[in-house]
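Morning!

As promised:
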Amino acid sequence: MDKIVVEGGNRLVGKIPISGAKNAALPILCAALLPTGASTFKNVPQLADVKTMAKLLRMLGWTVEGEKTTYTIAPPTGKKKPKLEAPYDLVKTMRASVLVLGPLVARYGRARVSLPGGCAIGARPIDQHLKGLQALGAKVTLDHGYVEVEAKRLRGATIVLDMPTVTGCENLMMAAVLAKGRTVIENAAREPEIEELATVLNKMGARIQGAGSPMMTIEGVDELLPIEHSIMPDRIEAGTFAVAAAMTRGDVLLEGARPEHLEAVIAKLRACGVTVAAESGGMRVRGGGDINAVDIVTQPHPGFPTDMQAQFMVLACMAKGQSVIKEMIFENRYMHVPELGRMGADIVIDGRTAIVRGGPKLTGAAVMATDLRASASLILAGLVASGKTEVLRVYHLDRGYEAIEKKLRAVGAKIKRAKQ
Ligand code: EPZ
């Protein structure tokens, strides 16, 4: 297992290229199950989760040629029949595997996927995915830890989601595009990744309207055609490096970042006293004087993203005064807190609320990564802590950040990867 070693104290100055968005690439690779021919995707991030998704598509019978950041995905041809099952030993490593349900049952009338089970940050059930598929006329059965979904042909329906679930919406979009008739998804998720998936499906010939708004309308079609598409930049990677620039009082140009995808995060950075400006096709972030304490409540998009909560908590540790953070999306997304405490942070948890008392200087320590964004927050803490920080179990980090230590080293961080 690898670890990452960081020596704190350096300002970050320079340019960081932002990779393709993990949470757009994963559903889009599943959308490649829908068309009748080979699709090509560019700017695919080189991440462990993307490699896992490629492995799953190959297990289902698709050919996946991945050359660095370009993937070509083609359906089984001739005598080769698609397998319609995603096994437990793969799904347990990446819950986004459930995104094959919608496209497989839409195109082949059946899919059998292991239930993902919980994960470090919460129970993360998929009841809304299944409720929506049932509304589209599918028969859903649960047995031996698997969910089986069958339908001769899905038919359009109105689906009202209990909460704006991101992958739940994505699954239902990929099911409804081949259903007979019109589907309306109400209380839909509005994340930029939802809009990106709708763009890809519409390029394939789907007829989706309202993506990015709380109500999406999908007119079913009979067939989808292969396409070429370049994936949007990763707004959470960009937000993570923006916090790194702010904390180190640096000056960093995030190449390719789209400010319009990060409005809530930018508003909070500015409230902290950080300068953020759109510049030459990206976003420039300058840290400066004191960091102001701000309060954060995580919400579905366009609210403050839960995937930026851990990173902002570290910024709050450096602020003058007390910040109140409320994690309203996942019930267990504070596992970075005890690790930050070992570095000297003063944070008290009360249910979904974290009270961060800024001020104490962080000191380097050996800390344990527990989930993707928690691991990023520990790297950020190491950038400003006095002395050396060792972040263990960085496989969590590699799921969602492409070569993070190389990108940070290129702008002045003293950081390296080593064997644990
Ligand atoms: C997506 O997860 C992202 N993952 C997560 O990013 C992100 O944190 C999350 O959306 C929220 O923005 C991908 O896109 C691959 P949800 P998802 O369904 O779709 C509850 C990262 O770090 N819920 O929007 O699984 C659920 O328990 C990852 O990149 C149900 O109750 O999240 C949660 O409390 C972490 N029933 C809330 O809704 C359901 O059927 C939001 O979950 C579905 C969800």
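The longest strand covers residues 2-7.

Hope this helps with the figure draft.
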